[in-house]
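Known limitations

Files may contain more than one protein. Parsers should not assume a single record per file. Below, a two-record file is shown to illustrate correct handling: read the sequence, read the token line, then continue until end of file.
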Amino acid sequence: MPDPSSKPYRVGRSKTGLGLFATEPIKKGTKIIRYFGPMLDCNKKKDDAVENKYLFQISKRWTVDGSVRKNIARYINHSCKPNAESDVSVRKRKIMIRAIKNIEPGEEINYDYGTEYFKEYLKPIGCKCDACEKKRLKKAAEARAEKKQDKQKAKGKADKSKDKEAAKSKAKAGKPKAEKVKADKVKSSKADMKSAKAKSAKAGAKASKAKASKTQPKSAKPKSGKAAA
């Protein structure tokens, strides 16, 4: 195998452990590295019993065991939105990793491991590729925003209920006063009526007295002169 240091990639620390990173620009369509290892015949019990995370099946019969240390391509991590892909030649039993996007220096090289691998190894622990991390962060931000909105709504309802109760209490406190004012008005009205009646009765009595005085006959006074014989 060629010296990896002469290639446009390096092994480096990734968020999921180790990964393969570009050391120079890699154009779309470029064959980056070969994925290789012992060839396992799935028709043989011994080969079919081999289990590890680096098995790459190229046909129903043949699988590449990529767990060997010299297989630098085994450091390439999975991504749901990759910048490379596996180019498999079943006839030659050969696997090449090829760029499907322009890859910049320092950018991690990744490809999609496939549905079966994802379900068996990645889904139980949660995929940590950039696409899934961004999706999780977006969902978390949306959940926080929704929680904050619900909290504000609940606070608004509580404040509204509080204001309503305060208004009720205020109305309740002001009611006796209004009744008192009404009672005072009724009392005053009754007093005014009583006074008016008294005045009317007094005026009537005075008028009756004046009328009686006017109709009473005058006392007869004797005329001056001789007395009757």
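...continuing to the second record:
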Amino acid sequence: MIDSFSLSPRHAWRLGSRTLLAVSLLLTPSLIGCGEAGGSSSTEGAVAEQQTGQPKPAGGGQVVRTTPIRIGGVEVMAEIADNDELRGKGLMYRDSLAENHGMLFVYGTAQVRSFWMRNTRIPLDIAFIDSNGVILNIEQMEPQTDANHFSQGPMMYALEMDQGWFEAHGVEPGERLEF
């Protein structure tokens, strides 16, 4: 399980498809991402982690870890949602995201998945990403809705950013994330 695997913010990884697959086999599968479970989450943990390099507890005592990733030539600091609780909570109850910050949802298997925006206050874009790190599709999601947004193929990762971020940075389906 990835909880015992360190994705240190001090390391910017570029994972090839074999390494990505090996890492993904360590992960716990889940069915739905953002908006499945209640509770509150905190950006304070992520900010403190950036300053100290150490994970900090989020709301509910969960540990928030971040990792830098590159997409479209831009470095993004991504919170890692790699277990059922973190994936279910997603970015619920937040009022904003810091610039070039988002949430990376990590799953143990590649399959078609859907996300919703229940209890999510900010408009978001979501990039559905396959097991090789390639973006399948990008969807805009409006806040406070139960409308489902589906991946257009088997996905293993999803990256949520402020709405309009992908367009503003020229990021389109077919581009690859660098972990």
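Parsers that stop after the first record will miss the second one. For reference, the second record is described as follows. The chain is about 15% helix and 30% strand.
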